[in-house]
Amino acid sequence: MPKPSGAVKWWLLCGVVMIYVQIMLGGITRLTGSGLSITEWQIITGTIPPLNERSWNNEFEKYRETPQYHKLNKGMTLAEFKRIYFWEYLHRLWARLMGFVFAIPFAVFLLRKQLPKRLILQLVVVIFLSALAASFGWIMVKSGLVERPWVDAYKLTMHLLIALLTFSYLLHVTVRQWVADEYYTVSPLLKRFAAVLLAVITVQLSLGGMMSGMKAGFLYPTFPDMNGRFIPDVLLSPSSWTMDAFRHYDADPFAASLVHFLHRMVGYSFLLLVVIFYCKSKKVKTRHPLPAAAGALAGITLIQVVLGIITVLHFKGGLPIMWGVLHQAVGILVLADLVVVFALIRKPYV
């Protein structure tokens, strides 16, 4: 397959990095409780932040009508509001910047006929996924402006998954443009194994999103046990397994306990699977980059498990924002490495 020009490849890589930064900004926004500070979705006029005291007071007045203000932040000062407003504004501003960085070069490359037809179709998919992520982001925000003082955990998780899908898809496309044909590994077995790993990490990232949305870390800030138990007592009670327990997770500890327990178990299982995958990948020819990428995957996954443990333990002293951000940052790097590994493997007929 013919490769695009160097300018196109660097542009694609820039897009991958910008999406990574955007997901991290979303994580910081969520952990600092900033996501509901801007109560309107103004694509054009929202680009300009409040520039004077009157504008700031108008924004603050809108926020003071939200459930989050009345239930969690009653008495917040304007200076405190400005701090949470900053992260949500930066999150939205970065999204707009990504649009410009993508759209303008895309139009130029199209006019110059520098994009292969298949790549054009793939980039259309990226545009669709990006629009879907933005739209679901607003749906998520609206869920926290009605009754709950925070966004719905399930909608938050869906927003995160769409963003990660956009990131992963563009990264996969980018790797395929950068890597020369002779550097791919042909192995149906490893390809299937990598697909299984992608499925498992998707489940794990979903559980991580719900962990954050349900604030499940506060329930069991202990390791290796969960408040003295391997399986929390609430999960062993048949009467706890009801649909209402999942719907009303902010009042019933069952759903958050289940998510927390599964997040730990899937994390351990994923680490074991990654180590097995790495051992199998070492058997391929040394000139291929796959063994190195698989080794990096094993190392980053181990670091991620350790960070997860540290993050859980720090919930004893309140919400560990720094550790939570680090845990998410490395988690996305695990996903990125796995996407690269998957892209480096081809079936015989490809």
Summarize the structure in words.
It is a single chain. Helix 1 runs antiparallel to helix 6. This protein has a two-stranded parallel sheet with strand order 1-2. It is flat, with a radius of gyration of 22 Å. The longest helix has 34 residues, at 78-111. The protein contains 11 helices and 2 strands. By secondary structure, it is mainly α. The relative contact order is 0.11.
Spatially, the strands of the biggest sheet line up as 1-2
Helix content: 55-70%
Number of strands: 2
Shape: flat
The proportion of strand residues reads under 5%
Distance between the termini: 11 Å
What is the topology?
Elements (H helix, E strand, L loop, with lengths): L5 H26 L21 H11 L3 H5 L6 H34 L5 H26 L10 H26 L6 E2 L1 H27 L28 H5 L5 H29 L8 H24 L7 H23 L1 E2 L4
Helix pairs in contact: 1-4, 1-6, 1-11, 5-6, 6-7, 6-11, 7-9, 7-11, 9-10, 10-11
Write a brief structural summary.
The chain has 350 residues and is mainly alpha-helical. The protein has helices spanning 6-31, 53-63, 67-71, 78-111, 117-142, 153-178, 188-214, 243-247, 253-281, 290-313, 321-343, and strands at residues 185-186, 345-346. It has a two-stranded parallel ribbon with strand order 1-2.
